[in-house]
User: Fold this.
Amino acid sequence: MTRRCLPLVFAFLLVAAGADAQPPPMTTVLSVVWSDGHELQASGNGPSVMTVSRAPDGAVLVREDAPTGELRAIGRCRRTGDAAVARCPGTIVRARITFAFDVAHRLVVEPHARMRVAVFSLEGGNDSFDLRGASAALARCGVGRDSVLAPAPMRIWGSCETVNGAPWQPRTRLGFVHGADLDAAPGGIAWVDPNGLLHLRTGLDAPERVVAPPQALRFGRLDVGVDAGGRAIATVATCDSTNGCGHWQSRLVASGARVPLRLVAPRGCQVAFVARWRGRTALGVECGGAPNVVVTGGGRPQRFALPSQVGSGEVRGAAAVDLRGDLLTADFDRPQWAALWALRVGARPCRALLDAAATAGAPGQAHIAQGGRVVWPFFGGLPGSWFAAWNTVASVSSRCGLRWRYQLPDRSDRAATLVGPTLLRASYGRLTAERLVTVAPPMWRIGDPGDFNDDVLFP
Assistant:
């Protein structure tokens, strides 16, 4: 639990009878939160059927039928005559129930329960969640065949096979992708496959166009934006044996046809990354080893010098860029250090560091999605041992500060971006589209990375 969100936390574990007996693994955690921030946790073992309801006097009743234990009611909740039933004060504002391990669970929130419910199925098992009695619901399904009955408003993600009685197809495999070569903009999705072919779609369900540029594509240099007329365009770098990898070209996503592209870089600087948005072009350039960002179009060119030092990490070379409106991201990935900045271009420029970490491998690339949301792999790990756990989604204010930030509780990817309510993910050489009912904040607030028990917030 995040210490800043919950001033007092009670955690209770079932203990097996006998001094030498080993308790079976904990599989179910119930967490109920009062309006003043206090919380009660209770845990059980093995498969369970848990029911949450309201008594006539407004108290909350929680019943758990588990073959290997019973619900412990301590703190503000009290045991009733039935050992499997806990009676809690009626001021509970939300409940979180976490199911884990390879056993099946069933949760029922009865009508008129009048509470907000969050369910996390972190591991395998064929789980069933009937949340129709909740005033708001959030469900994250894990491995196994899971079904959800939920009211509106609801938030659902993960591999839920059935939602409200209808088949739910959260994940669709689109094809194979090379590394982080993925991007999307309104009216356009593009990726590069391991063979260097450029794949273009005008939408998730639109026909796919495959383009083989006359020169070999340079991996890791893909951008999807829109031109001055609002048409989706994909920009890539190409290489040849004579001039190296300094060629850039833009193509219409709808037809694959080339469109004009003119790049103007400062003298002595080498263009390494390009991003286009309407009349503006952002360049990630390297000038004598220091990373710089140059934005042309819409007035005088603007140049941003990125810090050469972030914490204990040295920043040298070019930064990958992405551009949407006046929001720009500069993403620096090197074998020993990663950093991500947000910048605003135009009349009121600003810059802020969004994330940074010591790494032992490139953690992926950041993208600006629709609505100005920035999506990037979580930067984590220690020098010599890289890991990235979860994708981070954030909204950046007009002065480059964070309005909100949350992490999607699933593995991280080399690259990810949002297309409406769908998360596009480039991971392990595969490109998948994962449906989300909504990604409107606040959905997930982060305390310590890796803590699945962080506070779940509802609007």
Notes: The mean pLDDT is 76. Residues 319 and 332 are 5 Å apart (CA to CA). The chain has no helices and 43 strands. The chain has two domains: 9-168, 172-435.
